[in-house]
Amino acid sequence: MGHARTTVLAAALALLSGSALAAQSVDVFSTPGCGCCSGWIEHLRKAGFEVSNHDLGAADLEAKKEQAGLKPGQTSCHTGFVGGYVVEGHVPAAEVKRLLAERPDAIGLTVPDMPAGSPGMGASDDPYEVLLVARDGTSTVYARYPK
User: Fold this and answer.
1) Residues 6 or more apart from 20 whose CB is under 8 A from it?
2) In a domain, 56, yes or no
3) What phi, psi does 36 have (nearest 5°)?
4) Which domain holds residue 61?
5) Could you give the number of structural domains in the chain?
6) At CA 15, angle to CA 9 and CA 17, rounded to 5?
């Protein structure tokens, strides 16, 4: 009985570990050659995420954003998907990790437009907000930067 319980426990831990690793994989969709998108991807990689980038034409990228449930005024230049959430624009990796830890009932996070000082957009003390997008399309402030 002890061996069977250990085997079941080991299998459960392997399954949980696999789920945790899968949640750290981010699929990003952007237009080809976007330097700020590449900067954000590098920011995520440095924070420990495994990132795959997929180039799309502008119309296909806009369709991807709409399919994800994002509304006008909530979009930016690239769209990522991680752990069942959309991550739109230059969202700091710390907020992506927080989202995955807290698991709110939401579509995901967005940093609308391309604010200076956000990851991938260069150094600046300009303030910006990370928004949590609810399933009904409304949004609330999830974090403010600089902190």
Assistant:
1) none
2) yes
3) -70, -30
4) 25-145
5) 1
6) 100
Model confidence pLDDT, tens digit, residues 82-127 = 999 999 999 999 999 999 999 999 999 999 999 999 999 999 999 9
SS3 47: coil
Rounded distance between C-alpha atoms, residue 44 and residue 41, angstroms: 5
Show Cβ contacts of residue 58 under 8 Å, excluding neighbours closer than 6 positions: 31
SS3 121: coil
What CATH number is attached to the domain comprising 100? 3.40.30.10
11 within a domain of the structure (yes/no):
no
Q: Tell whether 18 is covered by a domain.
A: no
pLDDT, tens digit (0-9, with 9 covering 90-100), for 63-85: 999 999 999 999 999 999 999 99
In a domain, 3, yes or no: no
Distance CA 29, CA 142 (A): 23
